Amino acid sequence: MKLIGHELVPYEPLFWRESARQIEAGKQNLFKFDAAAIKQVQELGANFSVEAENLNEVIVANAAGAKFIIVPRELAIKAAKLAQDYLFDAQICVVIGGENELAALSETGADVAIFKNAVIGKDKR
User: From what superkingdom does this record's organism come (predicted)?
Assistant: First the structure.
């Protein structure tokens, strides 16, 4: 499992974007699944990651070129299986609050654990 945001592991932060207008080339843009934002990053050739709320969004985000697809923990098992069965290029991720959640997350098959501090510009839930 890859870790993003752990103090002992070097990582590239993700930059939260509220709208397509905020997207920047040269940064790992993160936003809720949104067709307009995906079109914008594709036109810019920018790197992007998506928060997906269901499996349909997971499938489209992967096909559109997302690097990371962040899902709620309750969707992680299904999303990880889908990604494995169809050999996704994107990695399935779950945001966690701390190191104590890693063992439980490892049982879901998620590719990446993202610590909250790795997302810049988003309220820490």
Answer: Bacteria
**Token pair 């905020």 in the structure block, residue:** 22
Give which of 106, 125, 119, 108 is closest to 1, Cα–Cα. 106
| Angle at 24 (CA atoms; ends 82, 114), nearest 5 degrees | 40
Give the tokens for residue 66.
């997302």
Domain covering 2-120 assigned CATH 3.90.650.10 in the classification: no
pLDDT digit string (tens) for 78-93?
A: 999 999 999 999 999 9
CB of 98 within 8 A of CB of 117? Answer: no
Domain boundaries, the chain: 2-120
